[in-house]
């Protein structure tokens, strides 16, 4: 059977005291989407509110996979993302959360998102996220009351990267928050590719890591019966 993956995107379009414009960072959704598409997966989109999501980094549209996403089915389907509460999330083999600053606005505490991620993980589905997307893993508690990220090998946008990118805009530093909940954090040099799989959790550090996250998710799903 064709594997099914649900990409869950933020609905935020601004962040911080200066209302910095934001959205889903184009390569962080386009590059994994390309990997999922090549693998023949069914790819669906959901957002927290069901409103049309926003894209950031459109200036990177000259990249082949970014352009293919914008001009092909990807962006058209993302604009029709269903409200997460209406999605049959148990039917998906994997969920994936791309970054951009937007998830730092509406994903740190959303109870339904936390439940979907916990349920997906505990039934053996794959949970993936890249850059600021791993904020979706923050505050996720498993059925035994422990934090999902405790003792797990995790990558995300680093404090060092944030310090030179959006320190004045984000409500907290993601690396520090994940580490406080027990994540074993893996940090590479700023803006270099760094993706890591720990069981059925796949995370990546930054935009350069998005392709690797997508490929690792594909590899795990293709090895499942």
From TrEMBL:
The keyword Lyase applies. Keywords: Glutamine amidotransferase, Lyase, Stress response. InterPro entries: Class_I_gatase-like, DJ-1/PfpI, Prot/Nucl_acid_deglycase. SUPFAM superfamilies: Class I glutamine amidotransferase-like. Residues 28-218 form the DJ-1/PfpI domain. PANTHER family: GLUTATHIONE-INDEPENDENT GLYOXALASE HSP31-RELATED, PROTEIN/NUCLEIC ACID DEGLYCASE DJ-1-RELATED. Belongs to the peptidase C56 family. HSP31-like subfamily. This is Type 1 glutamine amidotransferase domain-containing protein. It comes from Terrimonas ginsenosidimutans.
